[in-house]
Write a structure and sequence with these properties.
Layout lengths: L1 H9 L3 H11 L6 H12 L17 H13 L7 E5 L2 H9 L1 E3 L6 E3 L8 H6 L8 H15 L2 H8 L2 E5 L4 H19 L1
Parallel strand pairs: 1-4
Antiparallel strand pairs: 2-3
Helix pairs in contact: 1-2, 5-7
Length: about 190
């Protein structure tokens, strides 16, 4: 959802301009706006065979709305993936993130720095990738999003993944958890 919101902001759509007020302040976009965005996106033909949501739902109320919306369309979630990492690790990862505006490649200034001085000179850090903003977002996560863990544990959909280590290992853990539970369901 973050990518869709950022695209709407970049394209300066009416909804995007509304989103910008919240993202500039490091705040979450209100539910009614996110719900409309998610429903519009999931209604697109490329989402009919399946979809992956990242950053949504963020609250139990959003999860309940999503369940109801999907039910109206005769659909349901198959998995919910929780990538677990300590707050300190998350802070270090986000604060060092930088994007090359030419290629779209995402680097990390400490763990995966740009390979040349030319690229290093042009990478940009998002306005909301600061320690202050992230600390507020983590606090909001613990208050509002963390209650989703028991919500989805109760449904049997939750897949807990160790988020430490290289991206390819974390990805492998996710795929293994999804494939194992999908095979067990059949």
């Amino acid at each position: 959802t973050g990518d869709i919101i950022r695209a709407a902001i970049t394209n300066q759509t009416p909804r995007g301009l509304e989103f910008k007020k919240f993202t500039d302040a490091g705040a979450l976009v209100p539910d009614d706006l996110v719900h409309a965005l998610v429903e519009d996106r999931l209604d697109q033909p490329d989402c009919l065979p399946g979809f992956l949501l990242d950053g949504f739902p963020r609250t139990v109320a959003q999860a309940e709305w999503l369940d109801g919306m999907l039910k109206r369309y005769g659909r349901a979630l198959a998995h919910v993936v929780l990538i677990e990492a300590d707050d300190g690790v998350i802070l270090e990862r986000i604060v060092g993130r930088a994007t090359d505006p030419v290629t779209g490649h995402i680097y990390h200034l400490k763990f995966d720095p740009p390979p040349t001085a030319e690229i290093a000179a042009r990478v940009v850090i998002r306005k909301d990738d600061t320690a202050d903003v992230l600390t507020r977002r983590l606090q909001e996560y613990h208050e509002k999003t963390q209650p989703l863990i028991p919500y989805y544990e109760h449904t049997g959909l939750l897949r807990r993944i160790d988020g430490l280590g290289p991206v390819d290992r974390v990805k492998a853990r996710i795929l293994a958890a999804i494939q194992t539970t999908s095979q067990n369901a059949t």
